[in-house]
Design goal:
3-stranded antiparallel β-sheet; alpha+beta; two-stranded antiparallel ribbon
Length: 271
């Protein structure tokens, strides 16, 4: 129950005007306007007294200290003049947090420089004038590099092979970025392999570990399996061949030239 401030008559909840004197019971700026019939209703009313529609709550506003315009309660800047609105927004970033962030910034910049490429900041024109792409491996190198930083190929030899159309030219080379190394994470718990069954179909399985069998003198004995006694010959030892590595600047190795062989043949014939 409420009382009219003008005549003291009793008014009921939801009444916008006094039924005796007709005085408004609330300030016009505090009224809740119905979105359906546009009837003003008293503050705190949930339903319109005229049509019964649900009344939307009026959001709280903050007045701009510069131009006096009404803004939302959580507004950072005035929608009319753009001035900064007063409030506790400066507490969002505390001084300690800012100091910690400033202490970590050098480390963040160092990581960024590590992962960024050497030529990432160059423009297309600067890349064309100061770098070249290896036509073999696709690594971008500085124009002053004599050899590729990835595959080690000589730049002049690559130019020669490109002129012979053996490899793509520097203009047609496609850049292949470096693949970062990804560490392999080992499992926390060791993975145990499944053990083989001791009995298969009611029979004990044969041992898979070979047992060296006795052989005759001068003969390399075979390997026997204890399960069935099967014998097999010893493995043949293959000869080891060593092939020398030949670089691009080094000619193919050979024992002697053709002229040396002719001279050696003549010397042997004289003897």
């Amino acid at each position: 129950m409420a009382v009219c401030k003008t005549c003291g008559s009793v008014v009921h909840q939801g009444d916008s005007f006094c039924p005796v004197c007709g005085q408004g019971l609330f300030n016009p700026e505090d009224a809740l306007i119905c979105s359906a019939c546009e009837t003003p209703n008293a503050p705190g009313t949930r339903f319109c007294k005229h049509c019964g529609a649900v009344l939307l709550r009026k959001p709280k506003t903050v007045q701009c200290p510069v131009c006096g315009s009404e803004n939302a309660e959580d507004a950072l800047y005035c929608t009319a003049c753009g001035s900064e609105m007063p409030g506790d927004f400066e507490k969002e970033f505390e001084v300690e947090s800012i100091e910690r962030l400033q202490a970590v910034l050098p480390l963040i910049h160092s990581y960024a420089e590590k992962f960024n490429g050497e030529f990432d900041k160059l423009s297309e024109e600067e890349l064309k004038n100061s770098t070249y792409v290896c036509p073999v491996c696709g690594k971008r190198n500085s124009i002053s590099d004599e050899k590729c930083r990835r595959c080690g190929r000589d730049k002049n030899r690559s130019l020669y092979l490109a002129s012979k159309q053996r490899i793509p030219s520097f203009e047609d080379a496609v850049e292949v970025p470096d693949v970062p190394h990804t560490p392999v994470v080992e499992p926390v718990f060791p993975v145990k392999a499944d053990k083989k069954p001791e009995f298969i179909n009611g029979k004990k399985s044969a041992d898979s570990k070979p047992v060296r069998g006795g052989g005759q003198a001068g003969y390399a004995g075979g390997y026997a399996y204890s399960g069935d006694g099967f014998m097999q010959n010893s493995p043949i030892v293959q000869p080891l061949a060593i092939v020398p590595y030949v670089t691009q600047e080094q000619p193919l190795w050979q024992y002697a030239s053709k002229a040396d062989y002719e001279r050696m043949r003549r010397n042997n014939a004289k003897k």
